[in-house]
Structures are given as C-alpha cells and as structure tokens.
Amino acid sequence: MRYSAFSLLAQAFRGHKGWTPAWRDPEPKAEYDVIIIGGGGHGLATAHYLASRHDITNVAVLEKGYLGSGNVGRNTTIIRSNYLLPGNTPFYELSMKLWEGLEQDLNYNAMVSQRGVINLYHSDAQRDAFARRGNAMRLAGVDSELLGQEQVRAMLPYLDYDNARFPVQGGLLQRRGGSARHDAVAWGYARAADSRGVDMLQNCEVTGITMVGGRAVGVETSRGPIRAKKIAMAVAGNSGRVAAMAGLRLPIETHVLQAFVSEGLKPLIDTVVTFGAGHFYISQSDKGGLVFGGDIDGYNSYAQRGNLPVIEDVMESAMALWPGLGRVRMLRHWGGVMDMSMDGSPIIDTTPVDGLYLNSGWCYGGFKATPASGFCFAHLIATGEPHPVAAAYRLDRFATGRLIDEKGAGAQPNLH
Fold first, then answer.
1. What is the average per-residue pLDDT within 171-198?
2. What's the Cα-to-Cα distance from 376 to each of 8, 44, 60, 243, 357, rounded to whole Å?
3. Under a CB-based contact definition with an 8 Å cutoff, are residues 296 and 254 in contact?
C-alpha cells in the first residue's frame, strides 16, 4: 500500500479498516543471498538500498528483539554534516543529501526537520577552530555560517550571555542540519525494504556464525540455522561480540551513552544547540519534550542504562548554558550501547573472514549517518568495492596509521 493524501481520504471513508501491515512477519528461508545481522537503522537502510539500488532482494534482516529496539530508538535524533576532516565530510554530506530526499524515497513520514544546528564557541581559540571547520565545510560544498554573539543572541535569547561561567561569544551554524524522528526512520526503511521482498526476521537472535574452510557461510539463530552467500554485520555496540563468533577481535570499545527528555513544554527552542564548553546538546521534539545528552559513561558496558555521575554532569552543563532549565522536570532517560572506535570514525569494510562484512565504530555519529551508512554498505556488499565517499573507512587503518581523528566525535581514549 502506498501512502498518499488520496489513500488517507479513501481509508477515512472506510473507517480506516483497510490499512495493511507495514511489513510482513515471514518464516526464515533456508538460504539467502545476503543476511544482515541487526535490525536497527543501519541494517534496515542497507537492506533497502540493496533492494532499491542493486536489485538484490533475496535478503534477510535478523533482529534479536523487535525492529528498531536498539540504538536507532535510543538517540537524540540529530542530523548534520558539519565535519572537518576529508575522510568524514563527503560521507556525512552524502548522508545529509539522502536525508533531504528520504521521505520521498521511502514514501514514509520520517519527520525530517531541517531546523539548523548551532555549535556555540566560548573563546577566541574555539572561534578560530570553528572558523577552520566552517571553511573546510565550504570547500567541500557544505553550508556553514560563523555567527557573532549578537547574531546568536537574536536566535537564542534564552541562553546566559551576561553572567555565564563560559560566556557565549558566537557559534557555527549549519542551517541544513536538524533532526528526524528516530522510530519513523527505522519503520520507513523496514517498510520500504519489505515492499521489495526483503524478509524482516524479528526475535531471531544470532548465536553463532557457521564457518567452512575459513569462509562464513551461514548463521546459527534462535529460529534455526540459515545459510547465506554473504553475511553483513550492523549491530552497533554488539559488534565485538558478534565478530568474536567468527574469531575476529575489533579495534573498538563498547560504552553506554545516555540521553534525556524533559516534560512536554510549549514551543521553546526551534533549533539544535550544542554547548562548546562542555559536551551537551539540546533540541525540542515535536511532542514538546526537550531532548538532550552529553558524554559516554566512560566504562565498558553492554547495559542499556546509565549511571548517576553522567546525569549530574549533563545537568550541570545544561544549567551553565541555560539557567532557565532549572525549572524544568526531567521525564525519563535511557542508554544506548555505542561501538566506540579509537579515532572517532566508523568502519565500513570487508573483514579477514571471507563472506563477512563489517559496519561498526559509529561512536556518537550513528543516527545522522544512517542513510549514507546503508547506502555505502549496500554498495560494498553488492560490488565488493568500497563506495568512494567511504573509501577511508577501512578496517586496517588502525594498523597502517591512516586514522581519521575527528575530535569530539569518538571514544577519545586519552580522555576516557
């Protein structure tokens, strides 16, 4: 069923009894051309682009829970492409362009809102660093604007400019950045992939990878063994555990990253704001809650929950930037399991195990990368060659020294 104003009107006259399920709930086949382990944003996007761009439809997406139960439903929904380094900038700009056409591509309302992203600066040195980043973005064809204090004050009058411990001097603005509804992104990709014949296998946990002659030829699951010509991993913070099933040890650490939402408020903040003197970022959801987050918890964990010191640290940053938040009640918080690479940039590559493909190391940037991650991973799986904008995301770069050290985007072992 295609969604449109006409279909909505037609269903209204039928009492909305004719809507079909967004995707099927099939039984596993004995064999697929491609198995994608992980039913989150990246796995579902990969399945969609395999089917829509490469005409590979004999594909199964395996998810141990329900679709979207991992990090894609546990983040702060920010999308942006304001990166500095050549290895990252083209990739995230491709992602931004895919975001801009996503709803038409999927025939699904992902609630993409290009409300702008402002990174605040608080010193001359930070201003110079942001100017450098903005210039690098412009050289790569990405929009950026360096704002002074009065320009920021006109856009964000509620911040503390006069009595702040870290006075706001200005900010770097990307107007095309913003946010999207995380759950809708997962649902849209799942529905679009399913419409092309991809099987969504929920409650299907991978318990082992079947090896024959050093090649991955299938997986053992809670719903029985499944064979495949190619196996693709897109399991975020569980990458290390799944890779270990094939005898691989990855150059990543798994950490918890917490996010928070306040009680619902009237429209208050119409953009995404990041605090330059601490790791804090905030926006407002369509339901009225203020959505914000900060640093990873700083210890290795697979638990989808956080600890109190990070809660305190995030709230301190919030109050330092915007004292009025002290009157707002926090509604809830949650944790996602991050696969933190050692240079802060992702890995999209083949592995030393023949037939096994890897998508991991997304650190803080996983949600914003969802479209480009799926697009490039599908290209790698289908052709055997890396997509040009993801060519730097090699697994062996940690051995060769060709790191993409994007400050503030990754695990930063020296700080944690």
1. 98
2. 34, 13, 18, 20, 12
3. no
